[in-house]
Amino acid sequence: MTAEDVSTIHILPDSSASAETQPYELVERKGVGHPDTMCDAIAERASRRYSEYCLKQFGRVAHHWFDKVMLFGGEADIDYGRGDLTKPYTVLYAGKGAYSFGDQPIPLRELLFDAAAEVLSEVTTGFDPARHLTVQCEIVDHQGAGRGHSRYRPQTLDDLIDIGDPRLVSNDCNLLHGYAPLSRLEQLVLGVEQHINGAEFKRTNPDTGWDVKVFGSRFGEHFKLIVNMPFLASQISSLEHYFTRKQQCENQIGIFSEQLLGIRPDLLVNPTDRNGRPYLTALGSVADTGDVGVVGRGNRINGLITPMRSMSIEAPAGKNPLDHTGKLYGVLARDLAAEIHNETGFSVETHVFTSKEAPLGAPDEVIIRLVGWEPDAEEEARVRAIVERSLANVSGITAQLVSTGVVMW
Per UniProt, what is one GO molecular function of this protein (predicted)? Predict the structure, then answer.
């Protein structure tokens, strides 16, 4: 390994105030049924299904990029006691990928359809892929200028690369950030959405939809949540019934918030119905009525939108898990911050920068900022060891992305 193949690691004290001691804080989360979040999940599921297929059939993963996914919502016939999707969702995939390995075809279009069908069935109620989904595939295998053959038209096993191959280098220049721990407001926003779309809440409130959006604010110790949560039109008999059910759910959300963190926020559910217009959908998402989703427009890699924190604008979902550091180092920065926080107890920010073609285990710069830390040689050595161990195991992130999946929304 040359000097150029070693990361510069900075471990720095940070005298700025933590998020908890700032006077004001804003946080947002787009739930799993939001069209943008759907697109992130579909793109990542497509990458996993494609990678799994290639590993099973060929022993290695063919190069691919499925990170340009759009969802065009359908059309629905909605009224009290009725909610039917009359025009299907359309999922558009754009990117690059291989359609064959030598003379062996890769069923790319089928894999893409199955990925979209799986995700949409999980985050809506009553979704039937045969009736409710069309897929438009614009994945290309075009080769680059001056190349005899493309990585997207592999002919032999040598044209594919193993997970963890030491020849792997960063595919791009990227700047990623992570932090830990989550503030109380961040935990509240994330927890409330996950609770509403969790199995227990859906079991006791099966008439609620999935396109939940949660906005949180904190001014000093005053917490406020705005929750947008649809109901299934087929399960709501009247406007009066809607308001009754909304109040019941609002009470449950308030109780959960208090149980989670001992905080009872000011709570506003479905502010649009203040004009007498209830939030009703056919399958549980505004995608039922034509709304459009796009990869990368929603939550950051920790599942939140946090404009008052360091956060990357990378859209990791669907990117190649082998060498796209906008994806790999996003997971690394998030997990590294959590591990260092758990080890030291300090609030942590992690910043990872890489140039193109840098070895995967050696990004150019890794910066660790510890809030309130007084420099100490022993603790610095402990943190540095955590960073170096994590960098040495970047291929483990790839394996996890492919085998079990990493939630990034």
Answer: methionine adenosyltransferase activity
Cβ-count burial 97-129 (b if 16+ within 10 Å, e if not): bbbebeeeebebeebbbbbbbbbbeebbbebeb
Class of residue 221 by CB neighbours under 10 A (exposed 0-12, middle 13-18, buried 19+): exposed
Of the candidates 178, 180, 171, 182, the one whose C-alpha atom is nearest the C-alpha of residue 367 is: 178
333-369 burial string, b = 16+ CB within 10 Å, else e?
bbbbbbbbbeebebbbbbbbbbeeebbbbbbeebbbb
How far apart, in whole angstroms, are the C-alpha atoms of residue 167 and residue 171?
12
Distance from C-alpha of 378 to C-alpha of 102, rounded to nearest angstrom: 54
Which one-letter DSSP state was computed for residue 213?
Answer: E
Sign for the CA dihedral angle at 111, 116, 120, 123 comes to positive
What is the pTM (predicted TM-score) of this model?
0.95
Q: List, for residues 331-348, the tens digit of each pLDDT value.
A: 999 999 999 999 999 999
Output the DSSP codes for 160-203. Answer: SB-TT-TT-B-SS-EEEEEEESPPHHHHHHHHHHHHHTSHHHHH
Q: Strands 347-354 and 365-371, how do they pair?
A: antiparallel
Strand ordering across the sheet containing 89-97: 133-140, 89-97, 64-72, 292-294
Say whether 323 sits in a helix, a strand or coil: coil
d(CA 316, CA 325): 9
The answer for residues whose C-beta is within 8 angstroms of residue 59's C-beta and 6 or more apart is 157, 160
Which amino acid type is present at position 121?
Answer: S
How far is residue 107 CA from its own chain's centroid? 26
Distance of CA 10 to the CA centre of its chain: 28
CA angle 201/202/206 to nearest 5° reads 130
